[in-house]
Amino acid sequence: MISSEVWWLFVGYTVPMVFSPGPGNTVLATAGGRFGIRGSLPFWMGFEVANLALCAIYGLGLGRVLHQLPQLHQAMRWGGVVYLLYLAWSFFRSSATPGGAREEPARLGFGEGFLAVALNPKIHSMIVVMFSQFLDPDTAMLMQTAQLTAAFLVVCVACHFPWIYGGKLLLGRFRSERAMRIQGWTFGTCMLAVAGYVAFT
What we know:
Layout: H1 4-19, H2 23-59, H3 63-67, H4 70-96, H5 110-118, H6 121-134, H7 141-171, H8 177-200
Helix pairs in contact: 1-7, 2-5, 2-6, 2-7, 2-8, 4-8
């Protein structure tokens, strides 16, 4: 059983890491602003399922295999950059189409949410650090991994929802053609900025 002291340390680590601004939360806010809470649910579910999958991989020790392949980190980083550029392009394209023919970008689905996490090396690093700090090698690993994974999921859901809701609240009420065009350019520019951040940090 994980001690109460470890749980306090766990919360102190995960809440700021998950809630702080970053590529993942930027995409969640963008989805909320563009598609609303209901329209963002499939993307959000994919996002959280990917977090669960990474917890299973790293918590059970399979992450050591990935650490022996440093080139995999670079491949994930550049895969993430390409994916963010694709999202930027889809938002710019929706804004550039004239008048009534304006094309609404396809809603971000489960697969896109899963990819947003799977291709984000910063999330991988956060989960690796989490397990390296809070797993006790002298206690049953499977039970600890299950407990930490469940707690991490609760933190993720609690910290990601405000980003989606905030995006909806701030941007979702502006639905005129001009506002949607401005949103498309704003969201596309955000995706470009996030891609640059991921590429050069």
